[in-house]
Specification:
The complex is a heterodimer of chains A (116) and B (111).
Chain A (H helix, E strand, L loop, with lengths): L4 E3 L2 E4 L5 E6 L6 E7 L6 E7 L2 E5 L7 E4 L6 E5 L8 E8 L10 E2 L3 E5 L1
Parallel strand pairs in A: 2-11
Antiparallel strand pairs in A: 1-3, 3-8, 4-5, 4-9, 5-6, 7-8, 9-10, 9-11
Chain B lengths: L3 E3 L2 E5 L4 E6 L6 E7 L6 E6 L5 E4 L2 E5 L5 E6 L8 E8 L8 E2 L3 E6 L1
Parallel strand pairs in B: 2-11
Antiparallel strand pairs in B: 1-3, 3-8, 4-5, 4-9, 6-7, 7-8, 9-10, 9-11
Classes of the chains: A mainly beta (116), B mainly beta (111).
Chain lengths: 116, 111
């Protein structure tokens, strides 16, 4: 396994701009998750895909946030009209469907977003 | 609802033990434990599924109480490498795969 890869590692943008992040999960992992984490807090669930289907989306996620996973491989998270409150670390994780006791999340290193 | 972890922070000397708790107001389906070092991604430690279950490896173990509302992580004879923030990740129902992470416990092990 090469691990979960996220790009870019850092993104600085001005308020009102759109940003897009990419996540490449571990190959053969059919589940993919997006989380947001601010300093000193636990990861906050944003959305979850099984293959290409988006099965769950947090009610906290405004309509400025959208995620896709075409063909069930990599995923993108787009934030439109960014606000300063969007500044956070955006984490992607993947897991392989299988025996429940082995279904652990593998996290990427994250994309740190700073909105000025 | 976000599970509550206690304590919020703990400082230990090498060789000392620690217990971190993760509590929910409702029964959970499963609990995962992760450790995150500063500036790094969370790393999986273990998962518990059954009420009354206990499991562990090396000197880190965990339990899930019978009512499945509380899980505890036990760190025995702590090492410097144990420093980091520990999170429990909880799933309310089977098949949701919507893991809600706890408030976190910052652990610092001193030489």
């Amino acid at each position: 396994d090469t691990g979960v890869s996220q790009n870019p590692r850092h993104k600085i943008t001005k308020r009102g701009q759109n940003v897009t992040f990419r996540c490449d999960p571990i190959s053969e992992h059919n589940r993919l998750y997006w989380y947001r984490q601010t300093l000193g807090q636990g990861p906050e669930f944003l959305t979850y895909f099984q293959n290409e289907a988006q099965l769950e989306k947090s009610r906290l996620l405004s309509d400025r946030f959208s995620a896709e996973r075409p063909k069930g491989s990599f995923s993108t998270l787009e934030i439109q009209r960014t606000e300063q409150g969007d500044s956070a670390m955006y984490l992607c994780a993947s897991s392989r469907q299988g025996r429940l006791e082995n279904e652990k999340l593998f996290f990427g290193s994250g994309t740190q977003l700073s909105v000025l | 609802q976000q599970p509550v972890q206690s304590p919020q922070a703990v400082i230990l000397r090498e060789g000392e033990d620690a217990v971190i708790n993760c509590s929910s107001s409702k029964a959970l389906y499963s609990v995962h434990w992760y450790r995150q070092k500063h500036g790094e991604a969370p790393v999986f430690l273990m998962i518990l599924l059954k009420g009354g279950e206990q499991k562990g490896h090396d000197k880190i173990s965990a339990s899930f109480n019978e009512k499945k509302q509380q899980s505890s992580l036990y760190l025995t004879a702590s090492q410097l490498s144990y420093s980091g923030t520990y999170f429990c990740g909880t799933e309310k129902a089977s098949g949701t795969y919507k893991y809600i992470f706890g408030t976190g416990t910052r652990l610092k092990v001193l030489a």
